[in-house]
Each structure stands twice: as structure tokens, then as C-alpha cells.
Backbone:
């Protein structure tokens, strides 16, 4: 498909050449932000020849809340709830990657149990994120039933998250040094029940879609990207792996305890929509494998580091000892004093490389928090993907980029 | 007297079609919930009686239309007001009146008077149906044009292209049915399907013309503009397609016409391919007789009831089938839809017609 990128401009030229013919008139159409496929968070300024897209100017920013600036106003710990609101389909991953970045700046080691739980919950979040993306992607092609099946499995994972963290989406479960509290006793049962249902859902969805001619016709060869194009746009995650590059930070630069996990990195071959769908589908299965390994290997012990400089003392000490009370007061009021310096740490979020570039001036507040949101880069590549295709393909391609407003617009 | 009976029958058919269409909305909401492991519509029960008896369908028979008709009727600025108001009527009218030519029972004798259980008994009933089905597209074109909205316009362009293309394949398949039955009278077609095939199978059209059946059913679903053929109105692409700018009662008319079309397509398929009101092994004159047995005489009223009942059951089956299809498949893309219509269904329908004509010619000559 080497002529892909010229297809749009060729159509434009053709349309201009026959401008005398009123039927060849180019229609300008603003799609979004209140269009059902745009989720209220994006707008496409389209130039159409019939239904063929000859240009697509993507406007992001409808969900901009000033995440980065807000982080500078509070303490390091107070930034954690903001990270929940980045990718709200998998808030736990954002939580943990942010904490991991701050920990590296501080040089704290996280207890083993906390690391395992972080991997475990990250993978659960990845599963629910992929289920959201796949389900919504199928719904946008009209396969509503698959979307509802996937929502059902996701609901079990959200319930689990609610049981563990106290919230379905706004979890704020990570802390610098570990986790805010240990998991409840029935945690394993809930996860196993959720994974069982997820497996069933994946099997049903595969039956409904994998060899469905209408579905494959809508996905294969649509929104194709070459490896070079994908790299030049800085794509990561499933979008990049769909082109065949096995770049996964969990393998390339393992963090937490991913190096102890046995899993594969699924890749595509053509870099089209179907590959993006399949990569996410297979990744869900791999995540289930990782969760099972974590459950089998999960060690005992504390879930937060024993380091009074960065970690709040136990409540018992706060109420019974003066040192505990003072320590608690200082950390809450002044914030943890992260050593001056800067760090870029990135982890594999559900959509790709989620990176935090942190600058600390040694005070209790972040000097700068910069986020590298994975789907922002996907959105910049959207025009290249959709040029020459049709409006229906735009909905499908946009669905497979899995643009999450909170993450993209920050 | 004739016009009175005709009038009563027409009124009855229109009422039944409209009520059935409204009930289908409930079947759709509950059926999709069943397919998707959801609870579905359960708010508007009657008198809050326990679940299985709360007459859930009253939900849509009363609450949904009531809600829609009390909403603001919004007409966008720059819209063609006359066209905007006319479009829903133009869409609904053919969908409802088409059913008039579909026979729902054999002729019965009441008080020495022969009554044909068919609202209008046309000897060209077939042409009447195909003509009215084609009219449905005008409502869509008018709605898209009058709305002064680009999404609506795109929807109506898609709709008109789709319906015209699929009507061709459908029409050609229907021609092969005319060749088979040798008549344009719907009632005669149903009578033709009364006997037995090979002494065992009921002589329904589907056993003679399976290919035509598949094409007519597919084109019929395309005609109702539902997934996988819901391109004129698909939500994730065109917001609501041709009726984007409609609200309240006018929108209800569009929705109702969609459901009325489902009933109409089911009626058409039943009549042409599944023996209409024919019950297998039941003859209007001789009574019930399984293969190899002497027929058992039944009261005429019972036979009529069985036949009308069989027709209703068959129609409901195809209505439910269409709803199941809608919640199982994803939708086509516009150009793929055109490819399927013109490059696959059209040639197959043409071949089928030619083969039918050839076989009938050979059979006729053999006699």
C-alpha cells in the first residue's frame, strides 16, 4: 500500500480539476465534538469528496484540565489522584507508573509484595482498558452485542477495583513507596471470577467477530501504517506493535517485577485496523497469564516501604508517639521532600508508553510534571491513517487508536 | 356491503400493523437485552405487578410513544418546513399500506357471502407491493434534503442509493417467483403453495426457490435500514443519518415506519416463500391429513383460525429473526454494501431468474 499517503492528495487534485462539475464539489464537514463517535472530546475538520476523506484536521484539547500545572500546586502525594484522571479506563496503571517515577527519583525500594500487587493490578487495569477499547471499537462498527459482553467482564474487574481501592475509577491506590493498604482477603476469588468471565467473553467475541466476513472487511487493510510511519509519529503500544515491531516496555525495559513474568508480546504484520484489534485481543490473554503468575507467586510482607522520610507512619504511631505525630504532620503539610533532580520514567500503559518527566527542586512540591500520553501521538497520526478512506473508516480507526480524552488532553 | 367489509378489513390490517410495529419496539428492547445479558426496559410496568405479569410491552405501547409525542418538535433554522413535516408521513405511509395486499387467510363464507381475508384483493397485488416498497425511499430523500443538515444529507444519499440497488436484486428475485407461480395475485400464490412436495414437504416457495428466498430476505432487511444495512442512519458515523434533525412525534413516525417495514418484509417473505396462511397438511376443504392418511374433517371456523394463526406466527418469527440479526452482526461500509448489492446479489438473482425460466420452459414442453 505504498500509494496510500498520496491517495488523498490525488483525489483532491482530481476534484479540483473537475471543479466545473458541481458533483465534485468538496464538502467541508465538522465532525464532533458532540458527534456520537467523538465522545465529546475531539473534533475532526473533514474535507470530503463524497464520503472519501481528503483531509482531516484533528482538534484535541476539549478535555484539557491543566493536569501538569495542577500537579505543581500540591505536594507530590497530591498529584496521585490527578493521575487517576489521565487514562480513566485503566487508572491503576497511571497511579503506579507515576509512583514508580517518584520512587526512582527518591531512590526508594518498594517491598516485593507491593511490586507484585502493582503488576497484578496493572494487568487487571490493562484487561479492562482493552475490553473497553475492543468493545467500543466493535460497537462503532455496529456489533453492539460484543460491546455489552465486554462491558460485563469489565464490570467484574471494576467491582474488584472498587473492593480493593474503594473506587471504581478514581482509585488513588498507589503511594510513593508502595500501596496505600493491603488487598482484602477475598481479593483472589474476585480476580479469578473476573478472569473466568473475561475468558468466556473473549471466546464468545472471537466467535462473533474473528471470522465474520463483514467485520474483517471493515477492519483488514483499513488505516494501514508502515513501520517507518509508525516510528516517525512516535507511536507506541498496540498501534506500534500492530505494524510488527515488538516494542513493549515491560520487555524492553522491565520495571516492577515484569522481568519475572513469562509472557509474550503479540505483534501484527500489516499495521492495519485488524492487527490493532488482534494485538489488543491477544494482549488481554497475555495479561490474564501474568495475573495468574502473580497470584501464584505473590509473597507476604508489607505493602509499603519502611522509610519515614517518604512514607507516612502507621496510624497507631501517629496517635501514640510524638515522633509519629510530627512525621505525619510534616509529610502532610510540607509534602515528601523529593531530592532535587530530574527523571524521565516510562512504563507500558494500555495504550503504549506512558512517561512522566519529573523535575524536583528539593522542596515538597513538584517543580514540573510533564506527561507523555500515549494516545496523543496516535491522534497526530490519525490524519495519515484516515486519508483516502471513508467516514465509516474514520469511526473504526479512531476507535482502535483508543483516544482517551483525559490522557490525550491532560 | 362490499366496501364496508373492505373498509373494516383495511382498518383492521392498519391497526394490527401499527400495533405490531409498536410492540416490536418492545421486543427489540427486551430481545436485545436477552442477547446481551442485560435486564432491559423494566421501568414502565402497569400497576407495578410482579415481573412476568407486568405487561412489559405496555411500556412501549404507551410510554415510549407518549414520551416521544410530548417532546418538542424542533425544526432547524433554514429547513424546508413543508418538506420537513411531509417526510415522516411519506416514509410511514407506504410501510403501513403495503400490508393491505398481503392475504392473511383463505376466503371464508359468512352468511352466504364470500369474504376474502385480504384487505384489498388486487389481481396485480404483487405489482402494488413492489411499487409501494419503492415509494419508501422518498421519505428518506425528503427528510435529508429538507433538514438542511449535512449529516442528514449524507444519510439520505446513502439511503436512496442503498434502497434502489437492493430493490433491483429483490425485484429480479421476485420475478422468478412470478414465473414459478404464474400469477400476480398474492392470494393465488398462497393457494399454489397448498399442496405437498414429494408427498412429504409442504409445497412452499422456499423449497422451490431457496436462492430467491435468501436474496429477498437480505434485500428486505436492507430495505428496513437496520444493521447490517443501517447505513442511512448509523449512529457512529452519521449521528442519526437522515433523521438527525427530527425530534418528537416526527421522529416517532420514522421509527414506526422502520418497524412497520419489518412487519411488511416478514409478511412478504411469509407469503412468497413460507406458504402464507397455509398450515402444513391442512387443506381448507378436506381438513387435516398427514402424508399417507385419510384427511380428517375439521370445522371451517377452526380451519380459518388455524390458518390466520399460522400466518401470524410465521410473520412474528421473521420479525424476531430480523431483530436477532440486528443484534448479532456488525454493519457494512457503504461501498461494500454497494458491491454486495450490484456485484453479487444482482448477478445471482439474474442467474436464478434465467434458470427458473429455463426449467419452467422445459417442464412445460415436457407436458
Residues:
Amino acid at each position: 500500500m505504498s500509494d496510500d499517503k498520496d491517495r488523498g492528495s490525488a483525489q483532491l487534485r482530481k476534484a479540483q480539476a473537475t471543479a466545473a462539475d458541481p458533483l465534485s464539489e468538496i464538502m467541508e464537514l465538522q465532525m464532533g465534538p458532540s458527534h456520537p463517535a467523538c465522545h465529546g472530546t475531539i473534533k475532526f475538520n473533514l474535507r470530503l469528496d463524497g464520503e472519501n476523506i481528503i483531509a482531516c484536521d484533528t482538534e484535541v484539547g476539549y478535555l484539557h484540565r491543566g493536569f501538569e500545572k495542577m500537579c505543581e500546586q500540591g505536594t507530590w502525594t497530591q498529584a496521585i489522584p490527578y493521575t487517576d484522571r489521565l487514562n480513566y479506563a485503566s487508572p491503576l496503571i497511571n497511579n503506579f507508573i507515576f509512583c514508580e517515577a517518584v520512587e526512582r527519583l527518591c531512590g526508594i525500594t518498594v517491598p516485593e509484595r507491593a511490586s507484585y500487587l502493582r503488576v497484578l493490578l496493572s494487568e487487571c487495569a490493562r484487561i479492562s482498558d482493552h475490553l473497553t477499547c475492543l468493545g467500543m471499537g466493535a460497537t462503532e462498527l455496529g456489533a453492539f452485542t460484543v460491546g455489552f459482553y465486554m462491558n460485563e467482564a469489565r464490570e467484574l474487574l471494576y467491582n474488584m477495583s472498587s473492593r480493593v481501592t474503594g473506587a471504581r475509577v478514581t482509585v488513588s491506590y498507589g503511594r510513593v513507596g508502595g500501596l496505600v493498604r493491603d488487598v482484602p482477603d477475598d481479593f483472589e476469588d474476585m480476580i479469578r471470577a473476573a478472569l473466568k468471565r473475561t475468558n468466556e467473553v473473549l471466546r464468545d467475541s472471537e466467535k462473533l467477530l474473528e471470522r465474520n466476513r463483514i467485520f474483517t472487511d471493515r477492519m483488514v487493510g483499513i488505516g494501514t501504517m508502515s513501520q517507518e510511519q509508525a516510528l516517525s509519529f512516535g507511536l507506541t503500544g498496540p498501534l506500534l506493535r500492530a505494524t510488527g515491531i515488538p516494542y513493549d516496555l515491560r520487555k524492553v525495559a522491565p520495571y516492577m517485577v515484569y522481568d519475572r513474568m513469562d509472557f509474550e508480546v503479540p505483534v501484527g504484520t500489516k499495521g492495519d485496523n485488524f492487527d490493532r484489534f488482534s494485538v489488543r485481543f491477544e494482549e488481554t490473554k497475555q495479561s490474564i497469564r501474568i495475573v495468574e503468575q502473580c497470584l501464584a507467586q505473590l509473597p507476604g510482607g508489607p505493602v509499603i516501604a519502611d522509610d519515614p522520610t517518604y512514607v507516612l507512619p502507621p496510624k497507631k504511631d501517629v496517635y501514640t508517639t510524638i515522633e509519629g505525630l510530627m512525621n505525619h504532620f510534616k509529610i502532610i503539610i510540607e509534602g515528601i521532600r523529593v531530592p532535587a533532580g530530574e527523571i524521565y520514567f516510562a512504563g507500558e500503559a494500555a495504550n503504549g508508553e506512558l512517561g512522566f518527566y519529573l523535575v524536583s527542586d528539593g522542596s515538597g512540591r513538584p517543580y514540573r510534571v510533564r506527561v507523555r500520553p500515549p494516545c496523543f501521538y496516535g491522534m497526530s497520526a490519525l490524519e495519515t491513517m484516515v486519508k483516502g478512506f471513508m467516514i465509516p473508516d474514520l469511526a473504526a480507526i479512531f476507535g482502535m487508536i483508543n483516544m482517551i480524552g483525559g490522557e490525550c488532553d491532560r | 356491503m362490499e366496501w364496508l367489509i373492505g373498509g373494516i378489513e383495511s382498518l383492521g390490517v392498519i391497526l394490527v400493523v401499527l400495533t405490531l410495529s409498536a410492540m416490536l419496539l418492545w421486543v427489540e428492547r427486551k430481545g436485545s437485552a436477552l442477547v446481551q445479558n442485560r435486564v432491559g426496559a423494566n421501568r414502565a410496568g402497569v400497576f407495578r405487578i410482579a415481573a412476568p405479569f407486568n405487561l412489559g410491552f405496555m411500556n412501549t405501547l404507551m410510554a415510549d410513544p407518549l414520551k416521544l409525542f410530548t417532546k418538542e418538535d424542533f425544526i432547524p433554522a433554514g429547513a424546508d418546513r413543508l418538506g420537513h413535516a411531509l417526510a415522516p408521513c411519506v416514509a410511514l405511509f407506504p410501510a403501513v399500506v403495503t400490508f393491505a395486499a398481503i392475504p392473511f387467510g383463505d376466503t371464508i363464507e359468512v352468511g352466504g357471502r364470500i369474504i376474502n381475508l385480504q384487505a384489498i384483493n388486487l389481481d396485480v397485488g404483487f405489482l402494488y407491493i413492489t411499487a409501494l416498497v419503492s415509494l419508501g425511499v422518498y421519505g428518506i430523500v425528503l427528510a435529508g434534503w429538507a433538514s438542511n443538515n449535512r449529516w442528514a444529507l449524507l444519510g439520505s444519499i446513502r439511503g436512496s442509493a442503498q434502497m434502489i440497488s437492493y430493490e433491483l436484486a429483490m425485484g429480479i428475485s421476485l420475478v422468478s417467483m412470478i414465473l414459478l407461480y404464474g400469477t400476480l395475485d398474492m392470494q393465488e400464490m398462497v393457494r399454489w403453495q397448498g399442496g405437498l412436495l414429494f408427498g412429504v414437504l409442504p409445497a412452499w416457495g422456499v423449497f422451490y426457490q431457496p436462492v430467491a428466498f435468501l436474496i429477498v430476505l437480505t434485500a428486505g432487511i436492507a430495505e428496513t435500514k437496520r444493521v447490517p444495512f443501517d447505513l442511512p442512519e448509523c449512529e457512529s458515523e452519521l449521528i442519526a443519518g437522515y433523521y438527525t434533525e427530527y425530534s418528537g412525534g416526527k421522529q416517532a413516525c420514522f421509527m414506526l415506519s422502520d418497524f412497520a417495514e419489518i412487519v411488511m418484509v416478514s409478511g412478504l417473505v411469509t407469503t412468497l416463500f413460507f406458504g402464507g396462511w397455509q398450515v402444513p397438511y391442512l387443506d381448507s376443504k378436506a381438513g387435516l391429513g398427514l402424508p399417507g392418511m385419510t384427511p380428517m374433517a375439521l370445522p371451517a371456523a377452526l380451519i380459518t383460525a388455524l390458518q390466520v394463526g399460522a400466518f401470524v406466527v410465521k410473520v412474528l418469527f421473521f420479525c424476531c429473526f430480523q431483530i436477532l440479526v440486528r443484534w448479532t452482526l456488525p454493519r457494512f461500509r457503504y461501498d461494500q454494501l454497494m458491491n454486495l448489492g450490484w456485484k453479487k446479489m444482482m448477478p445471482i438473482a439474474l442467474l436464478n431468474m434465467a434458470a427458473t425460466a429455463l426449467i419452467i420452459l422445459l417442464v412445460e414442453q415436457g407436458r
